[in-house]
Write a structure and sequence with these properties.
There is one protein chain. The protein has 355 residues and is of the alpha/beta class. It folds into two domains: 23-246, Rossmann fold (3-Layer(aba) Sandwich), CATH 3.40.50; 252-353, Helicase, Ruva Protein, domain 3 (Orthogonal Bundle). The chain is built from twelve helices and eleven strands. The strands form three sheets. Strands 2-3-6-1-7 form a five-stranded parallel β-sheet. It has a four-stranded mixed β-sheet with strand order 8-9-10-11. The chain has a two-stranded antiparallel sheet with strand order 4-5. Strand 9 and strand 10 form a beta hairpin. Helix 1 runs antiparallel to helix 2, helix 1 (23-35) packs antiparallel against helix 3 (77-89) and helix 11 (285-295) crosses helix 12 (305-322). The radius of gyration is 23 Å and the shape is globular. The two termini are 27 Å apart. Bound molecules: adenosine-5'-diphosphate and magnesium ion. The site of adenosine-5'-diphosphate has 18 residues, from helix 3 and helix 12. Adenosine-5'-diphosphate binds at residues 36-39, 73-79, 190, 258, 301-303, 305-306.
């Protein structure tokens, strides 16, 4: 079941300073906690900026907030931005997302802002960022635009220079000389800068078969990632960030909870797609263990979990549906036999269903 989304008051052009606090924003933290596991520092840092905007009190002449989300791969940095869009606008698609990996070369920033008039390709290059695109990710629930510069460590220095103006003055000049205004934007930069140093520290301290608890000192992790950021970006750039937050490696409990979230979402999808023929999946502890062991790692966090669920549950379940083996079943039990490299499926009455 998806959590109920409570609408956030639409931001008025002339905000009334005496208006009551928007009810939606008050529930935002709770909604985020249901979607993002084990990273409450990030939620606590982000929510007040949304509230400031919804209350009509965000400062002028700069973005509503600028966040740098740091920490190892697969710990929920990008997911946080998607989850915020879901909570605020009702869908994770309400994000202007720039993959900085596409801007590794100096001249590639032209793709972001469009080529200047007179240059070859001027007509063909539609800028990836425009006022229209920022406005299009707002919704009737909220006038806040969420902008994500993902994996910013991959960006060429020319992109970092463009970003300086955005972070500082909330404007970006496009190739055709028009300007984009970011005063109604919440800007997220994500990066795994420092993650390698964290991993090295882990191995140095406790040897190869490391326990992630050794990395549980949040202040130490934060210092490592901030140092890496300072080596990579100029002080001006770093100074324009409102909050830098370091995501922790996920512990076993967090990973279990993330798996539970994904299975809940999968069951909701089955309900939605199969209608009257829908059934719910029920995983045994052994099936849970199989998925978390194959879908998570210290190096990639929970990044592979979705793929593993796809391969080991969704694909075989599709086979069962196609072969009409799920007809009349309300539950499909999923189990794992010790040593096996696939999962097994059982009917509501726990009779084996051959996939
Ligand atoms: N803390 C978390 N809470 C909920 N889901 C998570 C979390 N961390 C990772 N995931 C899951 O793993 C996937 C990859 O995480 P992502 O946010 O893309 O990692 P990164 O930190 O590298 O940006 C997400 O789509 C989500 O399904
Ligand atoms: Mg990411």
């Amino acid at each position: 079941m998806r959590p109920t989304i409570i609408p956030i008051r639409t931001y008025a052009a002339e905000p009334n300073p005496c208006a009551p606090a928007p009810a939606g924003a008050l529930h935002l933290a709770a909604q985020m906690r249901r979607r993002i596991i084990g990273q409450s520092d990030a939620i606590d840092a982000i929510v007040p900026y949304v509230e400031l905007f919804e209350a009509g009190l965000a400062p002028e002449g700069r973005p509503v907030g600028v966040f740098l989300l740091l920490g190892p791969t697969g710990t929920g940095k990008t997911r946080t931005v998607e989850a915020l869009a879901e909570a605020i606008h009702g869908s994770e698609r309400h994000v202007v997302r720039i993959d900085c990996g596409e801007f590794q070369l100096e001249h590639e920033t032209a793709k972001l802002i469009g080529a200047p008039p007179g240059y070859l390709g001027h007509r063909e290059t539609q800028p990836m960022i425009s006022q229209q695109k920022l406005n299009a990710v707002q919704s009737d629930r909220s006038g806040l635009s969420i902008v994500l510069f993902d994996e910013v460590e991959k960006a060429a220095p020319s992109l970092a220079r463009l970003l300086l103006g955005v972070l500082d003055k909330a404007t970006l000049k496009l190739g055709d000389n028009s300007s984009v205004n970011f005063e109604r934007s919440l800007i997220f930069l994500t990066s795994n800068l420092g993650a390698r140093e964290m991993a090295r520290e882990l191995t140095d301290r406790v040897g190869f078969a490391a326990n992630l608890d050794a990395l549980a000192d949040p202040a130490r992790l934060h210092a490592i990632s901030l140092n890496a950021v300072r080596r990579r970006f100029s002080p001006e750039f770093v100074n324009r960030i409102d909050r830098a937050i370091t995501y922790h490696p996920l512990d076993a409990d967090a990973i279990q909870e993330i798996l539970r979230l994904q299975i809940t979402a999968l069951n909701a999808m089955l309900e939605d797609r199969l209608g009257g023929a829908a059934f719910q999946l029920i995983l045994s502890p052994a099936a849970n263990r199989f998925l978390t062991e194959h879908g998570t790692s210290p190096e990639y966090g929970a990044r592979e979990l979705k793929r593993v669920i796809h391969r080991h549950i969704i694909q075989p379940v599709a086979q069962l549906v196609l072969r009409r083996l799920t007809v009349g079943e309300r539950h499909i039990h999923v189990d794992h036999q010790h040593g096996g490299d696939t999962l097994s499926f059982y009917s509501t009455d726990k009779l084996p269903l051959a996939a």
